[in-house]
Amino acid sequence: MNARQNLGRRAEQAAVEHFERAGWRVLGRNVRIGRGEIDIIMRRGSTLVFAEVKARATTVCGSPEDAVDARKRRQVARLAELWLTVHPRALEHIEDVRFDVVAVDASCVPLRIRHLPAAFTRDL
Amino acid sequence: MLARIDSAALAGLEGSAVTVEADVVAAAPAFSIVGLPDAAVQESRERVRAAIVNSGFEFPSRRITVNLAPADLRKEGPSFDLPIALAFLLATKQVEAGGSAHGSLAAVGELGLDGVLRSVPGVLAIAESLRRRGLRGVLLPSANAAEASLVRGLEVYAVDNLRQAVRQMACGGEGALAPADVGALLAAVNSGGPDFTDVRGQEHVKRALEIAVAGAHNVLMSGPPGSGKTMLARRLPTIMPELTVDEAISVTRVHSVAGLLLPDAPLVTRRPFRSPHHTISSPGLIGGGSSPRPGEVSLAHLGVLFLDEFPEFRLAALEGLRQPLEEGEVTISRRLTSVTYPARLMLVAAMNPCPCGYRGDRERECVCPAHRLRQYASRLSGPLMDRIDLHLDVPRLNPQVRHAARTPESSATIRARVAQARARQLARAGATGALANAHLDAPSLRRVCRLDAECTALLDRAYDRLRLSARACDRVVKVAQTIADLDGAPSISPAHLAESLSYRQRGTAHGE
What we know:
The structure holds 2 protein chains of 2 kinds.
Chain A: H1 3-21, E1 25-33, E2 36-44, E3 47-56, H2 70-86, E4 96-105, E5 112-120
Chain B: E1 2-11, E2 14-25, E3 30-34, H1 39-54, E4 63-69, H2 81-91, E5 105-107, E6 110-111, E7 117-118, H3 123-132, E8 137-141, H4 142-148, E9 155-159, H5 162-171, H6 182-187, H7 203-215, E10 219-222, H8 229-234, H9 245-257, E11 273-274, H10 282-286, E12 287-288, E13 293-294, H11 296-299, E14 304-307, H12 315-320, H13 322-327, E15 329-333, E16 338-342, E17 346-351, H14 370-378, H15 382-386, E18 390-393, H16 399-404, H17 411-429, H18 442-448, H19 453-465, H20 470-487, H21 494-502, H22 506-509
Parallel strand pairs in B: 3-4, 5-8, 8-9, 10-17, 10-18, 11-14, 14-17
Antiparallel strand pairs in B: 1-2, 2-4, 6-7, 12-13, 15-16
Helix pairs in contact in B: 1-2, 2-5, 3-4, 7-17, 7-20, 17-20, 19-21, 20-21
């Protein structure tokens, strides 16, 4: 595992702990679908969230959420559709489905986590 | 959860029924609009989303599908913003339609990002179509509401923003606008501005213009620069009969679709006077564009189209005038659509007799070489000139003549005579639907305008001697009828016919 992968793992771990403290139930982490991967799938109440975690060791190259570009958004949205097709029961008692971005600033300790709910939709 | 709101799209001058359906389900979030929307309708998503959030409503993260039915009609422009937003709020149960026992309310309007409602074009035609569909009422931007209140039998609710629209939706509509009294609006017109008393001399031209207006005939004035052609033309609306209620509505419909109505003047109360510059393109004059819009001929409907420097107009534009001049309407066909706009206009053209402007002048010599003269004259085609009933020479007057002229008649005096002549025409035309003699078609012309033996013989002689076309003959009779109407005569006399013939095109008259 190289340093960058390590950073990603640490960020995801921090994000999961953050959400579990906030009452979210994590349904899956690093869910592989075909060649793609969804970082976190979680629900709370009637809301189902597909979250993309993005970490940056420094803010020199812009903020983490800027790195979730149009291509990445399309990919996450497509993977989510696939996942919902395979797991139709996941939508039971669900009203809202969201795509969130979790921006992790790893330039400090402890890691700073910013949650951007409904960061994008399938139509961009 | 599914919800529907009635709305309408413009197809030419007609409103066409559109139902906005919104379906909101729990699935991967997306907001899509289907039903043949154009770019402005696609962008509606961004305006609706922002307007909803900024008006204090929720925009939940769900799959939103908006359908504009019927799906085969092309939808254009931002006027679906309001019905889309309302259908969405109904579908997400953020508002419940009240008073639905009496029938639902339709909605039309463009939204700003803050939820403010902006005006849209063609509201009169849209409101008429909603009433024909039997809908109870409509929510409209305040700037458009007065215009819609011209339509009887439709409740009109003026709203300034999305929140007000939601409140009206919830209570089923409160405080509908009082229907506008078109007659009163027309009666309130103050006739100010230019007047025929300003024009000294040129009595024969004024006489001819009076005839032209009385029968809605087409005129070509030819004269040197500064002889008063434009001055005379600009005063024509002041001697035209006032618009009737139906005419005012008909003119307003066209101007509304063209987006030319002002919010404080929802009804066009004066006859239009359009004077496009001679560089105008053919679609600009006749109407057109990939999504057709009315051109100047339609904006001049029931009024005057003044074309100054007539031969300088583009040939395509001039020849395009033929259909509207003959049929009183213009049909624009495109791959997907074909629309017809009314164009019952009176053409008033003005030109110099030659490129330098002084051919035939008493004091100044024309310096045009012969080939330039031919070139200039050839720009006006025979078929086009054939459609012009009165050819007038407007000479330059020297100051002595002008000062010696008697005090000119006021526009009001002339208009009274014109109105009487028009009244006779209307009474005679009856069921033909012609508003003026110029609008009579061939069969009704034969029925309405009877020529006695003497007149028939005169016309037959003129037909041979002046080489008139069959169309020109009909037009000569129509002008003669108008002269008889101004005269208060029961039928056309040889004198009326002779005066009418004197206005025919000179070149043909001399058999050149």
